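FAQ: What does the model actually see?

It sees only this:
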Amino acid sequence: MELTYTTNNAYVETLTYNFVIISYGIDRINATITATPDEENGSIRINIQSSDNSNFFGNLTIRRTSSESDFHYWEDVRTEAYFT
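And it is asked to produce this:
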């Protein structure tokens, strides 16, 4: 994922983040994941769209970490169960 942001002082930076998807068992999701900033609410909207219109049954968990823990501590932000 590439994140580009602009500060109030017109500083612009693009950061690149790599994702690791941990899959246990045979359930996998073939999807496109996009992140859109919601500046009014100070949040990011994450959209997960199936790439091949297949059904996915299972849980998806969004986690985050930071440099404060040297990227060793992961916090679960949200877990959703999907049954499509």
